[in-house]
Amino acid sequence: MPEDERQNIAVAYAEMLLTRNLFQGDSALAARAVDSTLERYGFDSEMELMGKMKELADDPEGLRAMLDSAQKRLERIQQGLDPDSVKPKSALAPKKER
Question: Judging by beta carbons within 10 Å of its beta carbon (0-12, 13-18, 19+), is residue 11 exposed, middle or buried?
Answer without folding.
Answer: buried
